[in-house]
Design a protein that fits this description.
Elements (H helix, E strand, L loop, with lengths): L2 E2 L8 E11 L5 E11 L9 E3 L4 E7 L2 E2 L3 E3 L2 E3 L7 E9 L9 E5 L2 E5 L19 E8 L4 E4 L2 E6 L2 E10 L6 E4 L1 E9 L5 E9 L7 H18 L7 E7 L6 E2 L4 E5 L12 H16 L8 E2 L5 H19 L2 H20 L11 E2 L8 H18 L1 H15 L3 E2 L1 H12 L8 H4 L5 E9 L2 E9 L14 E8 L6 E10 L3 E6 L7 E4 L8 E3 L4 H10 L3 H20 L7 H11 L6 H8 L4 H10 L6 H19 L3 H7 L10 H21 L2 H9 L3 H13 L4 H11 L3 H13 L3 H12 L9 H12 L2 H4 L5 H14 L3 H7 L11 H15 L6 H11 L3
Helix pairs in contact: 1-2, 2-3, 3-4, 3-5, 4-5, 5-6, 6-7, 9-10, 10-14, 12-16, 14-16, 15-16, 16-18, 17-18, 19-20, 20-21, 20-22, 21-22, 24-25, 24-26, 25-27, 26-27
The structure holds arginine (ARG) and zinc ion.
Length: 846
């Protein structure tokens, strides 16, 4: 059944308050609810229906009288009074058998919940929609030592706790946790002087891995006060780490639940990237307290209202904690690698989708990351000052609301006093806008012509021109200096011309500086312009971009039988690498190659089917050429970047390690792995250890290190996920599927654990030459596992299936092989709604 945004109707009833009692039992948990309903004056609907899924109804009463509801597909219907009434129900659920990890489930003996988007209906009967908000009182009865829910603790007694959350919230923010947990705690004093108890709850033995998350939480609380003026609003803030979790984390009011991989870290077990990711996720979930919880979404079509904004806020936070230029580049890499790809394929959808079958399939990079880019563009268009004015207005006007994108845009229109209706198209038109650039130069006059177009996407054709903010500058080719200030071009028409006069020579154009808009610039600029920008550009994003596009061109050329990188380019790159005035983290990004996936897409954009093996060989060749070309500087640079003293995950040291480890990959091709082996043996932190292992695997010298790594870490699930993934993703292409298959036969391959499942499947998919093995073995392997997992955990199966979204890029033979697997999956009896929707969309019509 397909749900449409246009069909939104207000709820028939509102909820005044909710009382829940849980009598926990692994196989038969009893949930008793007492809910005060009243008819919604804004609704014409009269019937009373509640959502429910997989519940055993024991008894139901209205105003104390037993009733006999009629069971319908997604819940129940029952006759109700015309005015306010009390609904009471007792249901039974089975947390132990719940492997979908939605609703209440058991993870390694720990009770936990995941209710977003529609998991609450698996806990009890309720109007499970975000525009129904209510205060919750929760009583948990169990012998387990730790019993947590949302809000403030009201009472704790022998075998029970009682919680009260005074802030009206939708059911998707409900949470419950119970188990043998220990906490690491601290306090935070808010700007108005209130003391908040902070705690990170984990299994015994993990206490030493909580400090970073706890500290990240404090930094986030302070940052949101300083930058957005937002203060925390309860006496307690709890974070819980669980082993089995479908996503990264969840912002339940006052009780955030995290995938263990998104909270636990230590220098020995976690990489710098893990530390940065954890800091960002903790911040993200905390920031949701205002952008998501205090102001929530009217319906699930508005998901980007909370997610796009909260991602934007966590990006700002990371930029402030670390390096803003580096963060901007990292975000652009992610967006291009994953969101542009989504936008270019069969799963393309607007940032605010117009219809869906299963909402869990729309927690996408488009909603999250492109959604965040829209906020960034708004900020750039109205300016920083007006942006924060608009945000103040948003919090003031909509606190306590379930709001819409229209509400959101309205605060900007009011704060900036301008019409943003064309900007609204960013929310409704899917596809990445493309900007074609043409330059002419005649008699001292430079003319730049920009033409925009938005490609057709499934279900959407003939799109309107968008409102695109492009930051722009011109450079003097003689002095290397920028002419004047940056200009913000606001494209609103299909075509514009920018003319400047009085030049002696053609100026050099720098467009979309700081990646001001998430668009594709059809870059016809000449190689020497890019080399010029590489040397002279003052915008750090576009300087990196110049290097990136030259590398991309070199790789696409190599992969399609053309010539490799030129000397001039390698010299220029070398010049940046040895430039000590540049941040090492930035130099690491300059050195990092575009993924094989990105090159495959670039080849396809030129109108050819990429051959994954050729792309893989091209990447290898380029690394070899770079190693040879940089050889005179490599050992010295590598030594100079070593970090001495105690490990710190902060940006400065992490940047040096990132650069050193990029260099190590090249060095390994020259020294046969000597330096990498030494680093692997001596490293006191996971970053350097894993990087050394990666370098060795890339030159096929990793067997011994892999075995050592396993014996050192076999007791640690999270570390072992790295071990699983790296040996598949860096396996020689012809060995990748075999390696993945062998790993799935291990005793410790617990495939119902999403992290472990992803380690293998994600590892394979990130080895494109292996996954796209010409025999189709990779496709068959993945399809087998998707079918198997779908029976237990449709959400993670559906998410993993996006690996097939690029299938139309490849040659007809591979397309046939993939299509056969898509059809096989679709033909599976009892396939979930989640995977059916994904397969149907990916497959498309014949
Ligand atoms: N709201 C969470 C976050 O981004 C994501 C949870 C989504 N869960 C799901 N089952 N779709 O912070
Ligand atoms: Zn979020």
């Amino acid at each position: 059944q397909r749900i449409h945004l246009a069909d939104y109707r207000p709820p028939s009833h509102l909820v005044e308050d909710v009382h829940l009692t849980f009598q926990l039992d692994p196989k038969a948990t009893r949930v008793t609810s007492r809910i005060r309903f009243k008819p919604n004056p804004d609704s014409e609907e009269t019937g009373f229906r509640l959502h429910g899924e997989g519940l055993t109804l024991i008894s139901a009463k209205i105003d104390g009288t037993r009733v006999d509801p009629e069971m319908v597909e997604d819940g129940l219907v029952v006759a109700a009074p015309n005015d306010a009434f009390t609904w009471e129900a007792v249901v039974e659920i089975n947390p132990e058998d719940n492997k979908a990890l939605e609703g209440l489930y058991l993870s390694n003996g720990m009770y936990c919940t995941q209710c977003e988007a529609q998991g609450f209906r698996r806990i009890t009967y309720y109007p499970d929609r975000p525009d129904v908000m209510a205060p919750f009182t929760v009583r948990i009865e169990s012998d387990l030592p730790v019993l947590l829910s949302n809000g403030n603790l009201k009472e704790r007694g022998e075998g029970f706790t009682e919680w009260h959350d005074p802030w009206p919230k939708p059911a998707y923010l409900f949470a419950l946790v119970a188990g043998e947990l220990v906490d690491v705690h601290d306090t935070f004093i808010t700007k108005s002087g209130r003391e908040v108890q902070l705690a990170v709850w984990v299994r015994k033995g993990d206490e030493h891995k909580c400090g970073w998350a706890l500290n990240s939480l404090k930094k986030s609380m302070k940052w949101d006060e300083d930058i957005y003026g937002r203060e925390y609003d309860l006496d307690i803030f709890n974070i819980v780490a669980v082993d089995d979790f479908n996503m990264g984390a969840m912002e339940n009011k006052g009780l955030n639940i995290f995938n263990a991989s998104a909270v636990l870290c230590s220098p020995e077990t976690s990489t710098d990237a893990d530390f940065e990711r954890i800091e960002a996720i903790v911040a993200h979930e905390y920031f949701h307290n205002w952008t998501g919880n205090r102001i929530t979404c009217r319906d699930w079509f508005q998901l980007c209202l909370k997610e796009g904004l909260t991602v934007f806020r966590d990006q700002q936070f990371t930029a402030d904690m670390r390096s803003a230029p580096v963060k901007r580049i990292e975000d652009a890499i992610l967006l291009r690698a994953r969101q542009f790809r989504e936008d270019a394929g069969p799963l393309a959808h607007p940032v605010r989708p117009e219809s869906f079958v299963e909402i869990n399939n729309f927690y996408t990079v488009t909603v999250y990351e492109k959604g965040a880019e829209l906020i960034g563009m708004l900020k750039r268009i109205v300016g920083d000052e007006t942006y924060y004015k608009a945000l103040d207005l948003y919090f003031e006007r909509h606190d306590g609301d379930a709001a819409t994108i229209e509400d959101w845009i309205k605060v900007f229109e009011d704060a900036a006093d301008r019409d943003l209706s064309q900007f609204m198209l960013w929310y409704s038109q899917a596809g990445t806008p493309k900007i074609t650039v043409t330059e002419t130069f005649e008699e001292g006059t430079h003319t730049l012509v920009l033409e925009q177009s938005v490609p057709d996407t499934p279900g959407q054709a003939d799109k309107k021109p968008m409102h695109i903010p492009l930051l722009f500058a011109l450079f003097d080719p003689d002095t290397g200096q920028q002419f004047g200030e940056d200009v913000l071009l606001e494209l609103t028409e299909p075509r514009i011309e920018i003319r400047t006069r009085g030049h002696d020579r053609k100026p050099v154009v720098s467009l979309n500086r700081d990646f001001s808009a998430p668009v594709i610039i059809d870059d016809t600029s000449r190689t020497d312009d890019r080399l010029f920008l590489l040397a002279n550009e003052t915008d750090s994003f576009n300087r990196w971009e110049a290097a990136r596009s030259l590398t991309r061109d070199a790789l696409t050329a190599l992969a399609t039988g053309g010539l490799g990188p030129g000397e001039e380019y390698l010299d220029a790159l070398n010049g940046l690498l040895v430039d000590d005035s540049l941040d090492p983290a930035y130099r690491a990004l300059i050195l990092r190659q575009p993924s094989e996936e990105e090159i495959a897409q670039a080849i396809f954009d030129y109108g050819r089917h990429p051959e994954p093996l050729s792309v893989n060989r091209a990447a290898d060749t380029l690394r070899a050429r770079m190693a040879a070309h940089f050889e005179p500087d490599l050992p010295r640079l590598f030594r100079g970047m070593q970090v001495h003293g105690a490990y710190s995950p902060e940006a400065a040291d992490a940047g040096r390690r990132a650069f050193a480890n990029g260099l190590l990959t090249l060095l390994s091709r020259l020294d046969g792995g000597t330096a990498a082996r030494a680093q692997f043996d001596q490293a006191d932190n996971m970053t350097n250890r894993l990087a050394a292992l990666g370098s060795l695997l890339q030159i096929d010298e990793g067997a011994e290190a892999l075995a050592r790594f396993e014996s050192d870490w076999k007791h640690d699930r999270l570390v072992m996920n790295k071990w699983y993934a790296i040996q598949i993703s860096l396996a020689p292409p012809e060995a990748a599927v075999g390696t993945a298959r062998a790993l799935t036969e291990r005793e410790d391959f617990d495939w119902t654990n999403p992290n472990r499942f992803r380690a293998v499947m994600g590892g394979l998919v990130s080895n494109p030459a292996g996954f796209h093995d010409a025999t189709g073995a990779g496709y068959e392997f993945l399809a087998d596992w998707l079918i198997r997992l779908d029976e237990k955990n449709p959400q993670t199966a559906a998410r993993t299936s996006t690996a097939f979204e690029t299938w139309k890029r490849y040659d007809p033979k591979r397309q046939d092989l993939i299509k056969a697997q898509l059809d096989r999956i679709l033909g599976t009896e009892g396939l979930s709604r989640d995977l059916t929707e994904m397969m149907t969309r990916i497959r498309g019509d014949d």
